[in-house]
Amino acid sequence: MVERVIAALLVCTALGGWAVRRVAGNDVDNARQHWTKYLVYLALVVIWVTAILLDGAVYLAGGMVLAGFLEFIHATVNNKPSVFKAIPMLLLFGLASSWLVDFVSHAPVDYILTVYTMVVVMDAFSQLSGQLFGRHRISNISPNKTWEGLVGGYLATCVAFFVMTWKLDVARGLKPVYEMDARLFWNGLAFALLLCLFSFAGDMTASWYKRVCGIKDYSSLLKGQGGVLDRYDSLLAMGMFYQCAVYLDLCPHFPS
């Protein structure tokens, strides 16, 4: 499992570096800004994977939730959005946060590691696909989000899911020890689709509230990331996704 996660993250790292180089161009200041954002994000991924492997994800998630809550309060108090928008957002943030902490507290490490890796793959490939093929904008809330990017992120997430849940027999030359039946295949597609939808919804919700508050970033705490809440918006939805996946009986057996 760990080897597969590392392989998936290395692929994302390589493609992400290529995308940054392509987007940054020859402008020194622009290149510095993009590379800083990329390296900070990469460091955060390493920290999260390390925390999950060392059974410390709950502490990292708790710290993330606290920082995000403080950013939310700061944005709300300073910019005074409509109470009919602020209160539902606060309730949604509280629900998502509680389910995320519950997820990383009680789910098996393989589940947490796999779902987190799928979120990273979704983020990386949706951005990459959007930069390469993006033509149709999804919404003015987040102008960089395109339908092509969303589809590309979903397809990559499906591949990541099957790679990390496919049981292999090393003694037989990495041949599968069971056949892919129809139920497993469709469950995998549904599992990946559900994750992508929750990830996308979390991202769009955080972007929407920034527009409501009239701000570009929630804070400058994470260099080039738009703040903790902006960086982990899709991750915050992970707990809600897991609850729905369990309810719909979509969670497979993850091999160790």
The DSSP helix count reads 10
The structure class reads: mainly alpha
Residues in β-strands, percent: under 5%
**Percent of residues in helices:** over 70%
Distance between the termini: 5 Å
Gyration radius over CA:
18 Å
Low-confidence stretches: none
Strand adjacency order, main sheet: 1-2
| Overall pLDDT | 81
Q: What is the H-and-E element order?
A: HHHHHHEEHHHH
User: What is the 3D shape?
Assistant: globular
The largest sheet, given as strand count, sense and whether it forms a barrel, is:
2 strands, antiparallel
The assembly state of the depicted protein chains is: single chain
- Give me the count of strands: 2
Protein model, in words:
The protein is mainly α and 256 residues long. It is 74% helix and 2% strand. The chain has helices at residues 2-24, 28-53, 57-79, 83-106, 109-133, 147-165, 182-213, 228-231, 233-236, 238-247; strands at residues 168-169, 175-176. Strands 1-2 form a two-stranded antiparallel ribbon. A hairpin with a 5-residue loop joins strand 1 and strand 2. The mean pLDDT is 81.
What does this entry show, briefly?
The protein has 256 residues and is mainly alpha-helical. The protein has helices at 2-24, 28-53, 57-79, 83-106, 109-133, 147-165, 182-213, 228-231, 233-236, 238-247, and strands at residues 168-169, 175-176. The protein has a two-stranded antiparallel sheet.
